[in-house]
Write a structure and sequence with these properties.
It is built from 5 helices and 6 strands, in the order E-H-E-H-E-H-E-E-E-H-H. With about 200 residues, it is an alpha/beta fold. The protein has one domain: Maf protein (Alpha-Beta Complex), CATH 3.90.950.10. The two termini are about 15 Å apart.
Length: about 200
């Protein structure tokens, strides 16, 4: 079965390919097609994931997988949430987003820095049918960034039960507890039950 990953984020593609390597899939990316950009303007992670996967499936005629994920900080009322990738504005970068986040939390003690990563994966099949899979990873926001692996907010996220950030972890350790991995495991279970009977 051919599946198109509906993202141009190189690190996300690498992560998804690594996590899906044990499935008998022909995994393609947007580099293999000429698809238009999709505006992420829905008000939920699920809405954005479905919109991207549906657009790419329609463009390619193949099944498409998309995820929308982000960081929700309890003390900030759930921000940055669906705006995680562009939290610092139109010209956001991981560094700018982290800087804005830490500035917004500057006075908060560590025990009040609870947060969670949320991931919703959408699978849109060639016939237009839709399945979604959601998961989370809970933890706390660091006072200062630590580590140089991963991407996004990884340098400031301590997952529950650990004293190192996602960005300080080996990829295999991060994968084992990440929100994207948990959502992807649900997708994989569905694929195995539905397509490999």
């Amino acid at each position: 079965m051919k599946i198109v990953l509906a993202t141009r984020n190189r690190k996300k593609i690498e992560e998804l390919r690594r996590m899906m390597s044990d499935l008998s899939l022909d995994i393609l990316t947007l580099d293999d097609f000429d698809c238009p950009e999709v505006m992420e303007d829905e008000d939920t992670f699920e809405g954005n994931a479905i919109k991207k996967a549906a657009a790419v499936s329609e463009c390619t005629g193949l099944a498409a997988v998309s995820d929308d994920s982000g960081l929700e900080v309890r003390a900030l009322g759930g921000l940055p949430g669906i705006y995680s990738a562009r939290y610092a504005g139109d010209n956001s970068s991981d560094e700018k987003n982290i800087k804005k986040l830490l500035a917004a939390m500057d006075k908060l003690p560590y025990e009040e820095r609870g947060a969670r990563f949320v991931c919703c994966i959408a699978l849109v099949l060639a016939d237009g049918s839709i399945k979604t899979f959601e998961a989370e990873a809970r933890g706390k926001i660091a006072i200062t960034p630590k580590g140089d692996s991963g991407f996004g907010y990884d340098p400031v996220f301590y997952p529950e039960g650990h004293d190192i950030t996602f960005a300080q972890m080996a990829p295999e350790l991060k994968d084992s507890m990440s929100h994207r991995r948990a959502a992807l495991e649900k997708l994989k279970m569905w694929l195995q039950k539905s397509l490999y009977k």
